[in-house]
Amino acid sequence: LVVDASEASGRPISETMFGIFIEEFNNAGAGGLWAELVSNRGFEAGGPNVPSNIDPWSIIGNESSLIVSTDRSSCFDRNKVALRMEVLCDSQGANSCPDDGVGIYNPGFWGMNIEKGKTYSVVLYVRSSGSINVSVSLTGSDGLQKLAAANIIASGSEVSNWKKFKVMLEAQGTNPNSRLQLTTTRKGFIWFDQVSVMPLDTYKGHGFRKDLVQMLEDLKPQFMRFPGGCFVEGAWLRNAFRWKETIGPWEERPGHFGDVWMYWTDDGLGYFEFLQLAEDLGTLPIWVFNNGISHNDEVDTASVLPFVQEALDGLEFARGNPNSTWGSLRAAMGHPEPFDLRYVGIGNEDCGKKNYRGNYLKFYTAIKRAYPDIKIISNCDGSSQKLDHPADLFDFHFYTDDAKIMSSMAHQFDHTSRSGPKAFVSEYAVTKGSLLAALGEAGFLIGLEKNSDVVEMASYAPLFSNDRRANFAAIVFNSSHLYGTPSYWMQSLFSESSGATIFNATLKTNSSTDQVEQLLASAISWKNSENENSYLRIKIVNLGTNIVNLKIVVDGLEPNSINLSESTKTVLTSTNVMDENSLNEPKKVIPNRSLLEKAGKDGEDV
Ligand code: AHR
C-alpha cells in the first residue's frame, strides 16, 4: 500500500462527513433514548376513542375487587382519555381489599430499570369521588420486591377535580425488570391520567438515558438527522410524525401510533427534545419533515400549502425570535436562544411518488424565501444523473444483506457530477449484525471518504434497537444494558474523518491480484483539538478469506515527522466473520488497539 501524504495529494473531507440518524424505530426513543419509564402514560394507545388500549398497564385485583375502564374525562384537551377505577373492596368489612391493595401497574418497556440510591420523579394526575389514599410504588416484576414507595393522600374536596401529584422516590434496591404500581384499599371511584416516572439522573438533565447518549458522543457525530425515516411519512398521513403535536408540556401531548413500525409513542421525545439533544451533543440537527406524502396516501400539490406552512412554522419554532409566534413556544419550553438548524430534508424516500416533485418545489421555494441559508435535501438520487430540480443535497439510501455488494458500492459516487448537489448518504447498512456486515460497510465508507468532494454526509441506519425488537442496529439495548454491534465499532474507526484530509492510497501487487481486490484502503490526517499534533490514519478493510501481508509505504512526509514508536494499530476482527455481539457477549467483536509491533524507520519496511 503506497500512501502519498504530500500536501499536493491531500484533499479535504467535509467537516460534516459522519453523523448519526435517529429514528423512532425499534423503540429507539420511546423506551430507549428517552428516559421516561412509563409506557402509554396517558392511556391513549388505543386512540382518542373509548374504550382505549391501556396496554401495557395491567390490573392488580379481580372482578370482585375492581373494575377498570377508560373514559374521556381527562383535564387535557388534546388527550381526553383517562383511566377510571371503580374500587369495590374496602379497607375493612366483608369485601376487604388485599393488604397490598388493588389497582394497576405499568412494566414500562419490557421492565423498568430501577437502581438502588437513584431518585425517580413520579408525576400523576388524579381525580376521585371521595378522599384518596394511593400507594405509589416501584416494585419487582412480581410486585413483591418493594424498591420504593410513597402514599398520596388527599381529601375528597382536593381531588374532586383533577389534581397533579409529584413524589420523589429513592430506590432502596436494584431491579432492571421493575414496574410502577398505583394501588389503594379504599372503596370508591378514582381516575388516573398522565402518569410519568423519570429518573433524575439523565444526560445533561434533559431527559435522555445517559449510557445510550454516551455511545453517540463517542462517535463524535457532526450531524444528527431526525426523527425518521418512514416514521416521518407514516403508512398513512394521519399517523405521520407531526411536530406540533410533540411540543409543549408533556402532559398535553396526544402521542401517536407510528403505523409503519407499529407501536405507540407518547411523544415525550418530540421535536424540541431532538433539537435539544443535537445541541447537547454539539452536532448539527437535520430535520426531516412530512411533505404531504405517506406510504399509502398523498396530498396533491394544489393542496399542499398547509403542509408547507407547518414546515415554516417548525423552522420558526427552531430558529425564530423568542417573541415570534412559534419561537415563543420554544422560549416557554426553556430555550429562548434559537437552535442551530441549518438543514432540512423534504420527505423520506418519496422521490418516485406522484406528487413528490410538485410538493417539493412548493416547500423549496417557500423555505428558500424565508430562510435562504437553510440547506435543502431532496429525496431524489443524484448519484448517477443530475436532478431535475434545485437542491443543496440529495438523499441516498442503500441497504443490502450482502457485505460484498455493500463494499462494491464504494464506487457509487466515482462518476457523480461534481457540479450538482452533494450527496447525503443518510441511511446505509448491511442488514445483519455480524462482523462481515461491518466489513462491507467499512469498504463502502472508504469509498465515501475517497469521494468526499461530492459526498458531504453519511449516517448508518438504524442506529438503535431495543433487544426485544428483532432487528439489526448499531446499538442494541435493554432496560439496563447495551452493546455496540460490529457496525457501531466500525463507525467509531471513522469518527476522525470529518474535516480531515484524505490522501491518495494505492494498493499495488506483483503477484496475486485476487488478494488485493478484496482490500480497500484510505489514508487521512487530522489535527488534535488543540491544533497541535497531527495524526495519520490508514484504514484497510479485508473482505476476503485470506490473510494478506502488506508493506505500507508513506511518501511525502518530512523526515522524522512520524513518531513510529507511539504509533498504534486498531484491529476489528474475530475468529469467525459471522460473529456478532450480544447482551451476553457485548465485547466479542470490538476494536483492539495496540502498539505497532513492527515499525520501521524512514526507508524501512513497516
Ligand atoms: O432504517 C429503517 C427505514 O429504512 C427508514 O425508516 C427508511 O427511511 C428506510 O426505508
Automatic annotation (TrEMBL):
Gene Ontology process terms (BP): L-arabinose metabolic process
E.C. no: 3.2.1.55
Gene3D superfamilies in UniProt: Galactose-binding domain-like, Glycosidases, Golgi alpha-mannosidase II
Subcellular location: Secreted, Extracellular space, Extracellular matrix
Keyword vocabulary terms for this entry: Extracellular matrix, Glycoprotein, Hydrolase, Secreted, Signal
Catalytic activity: Hydrolysis of terminal non-reducing alpha-L-arabinofuranoside residues in alpha-L-arabinosides
Residue ranges occupied by any Alpha-L-arabinofuranosidase C-terminal domain in the UniProt entry: 426-606
Record Pfam families: Alpha-L-AF_C, ASD1_dom
GO MF terms held by the record: alpha-L-arabinofuranosidase activity
SMART domains: Alpha-L-AF_C
UniProt main location, coarse: secreted
Similarity comment: family membership: Belongs to the glycosyl hydrolase 51 family.
Cited PANTHER family: ALPHA-L-ARABINOFURANOSIDASE 1
Official protein name in the record: non-reducing end alpha-L-arabinofuranosidase
Species name: Prunus dulcis
